[in-house]
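User: Could you check the structure of this?
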Amino acid sequence: MTQEFIQSVVNNPTSTQAVTTADKVFEQIQHAIVEGYISAGSKISEPELARQYQVSRSTLREALNRLEKCHLIHRKANVGSRVVECTVQGLLEIYQVREALEGMACRLAASSMTDQEIADLQDVLTTHGNSQSVQQGVSYYQEEGDLDFHYRVIQGSHNQHLINILCGELYHLVRMYRCQFGMNSPRASRAFTEHQAILTAIADRDGELAEMLMRRHIGASRKNIENKLQQEGKL
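Assistant: Sure, the predicted C-alpha cells are below.
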C-alpha cells in the first residue's frame, strides 16, 4: 500500500483516520477492490476475509457496511455480499453524473477557493505536467486525494453536500472504473491542457467559464470512452 494511498484516505472528508481495526480493514479492502485485487462481480466470503485480515466477523461486517455506502459492494439479506460489476452502462452513467455535479463544483470553486488553494492546485498540475507519460501523451494517471486535480476542485467548492457525494460516495467507484477500463488514452496531453484552462478560469474567478470548461472536459472524456468501446465492440 503506497504512502500516497494512505494519505489520500486521511484527506477524504467522508472518512476518518484509521484508528480502529474496522477502519484499517475498510481501507485495505477498499484499495483491493479499486485496484482489482478483488475482482469486480466476485462474491465476498466473510469467513475467508475474516481469516485473511485476522479480524472478527463483526469487525468485518462493519467494514463491509462502509464499503456498501461507497457503492463498491452490494449486500442482500440471506444472499451475501458481492463486489459491484463494472458495466459499460454504469460507466457512462457515472460520467453523466460527474459532468453535471463537477461542473457545479467548478463554478463554486471559482468563487470559494482561497488564493492559497489555487496556488496549491497549480503545484499539483505542475507535478502532473512533469510526468513523462503525460508529456509523451501515453496516459494521465493521478494518485488519490490531494494529488488528484478533480478531487482538489471539488474540495474547493466548499459545498459539503457536493463533497460528500463526489469525494465520498462516488470517488472510489469512479477510480474502480478507471482501473477496470484502463488509463491509456490518446487524450492524455489534451486532458492536461484542459485542466490548465479550467484552473485559469478558476483563478480568474470566472465561474461560468469554469463550469463550462469542466463539463466539456468530462464530456470529452466520456465521448473518448464511448469511441474506444465501440472500436472494441463493447458498445
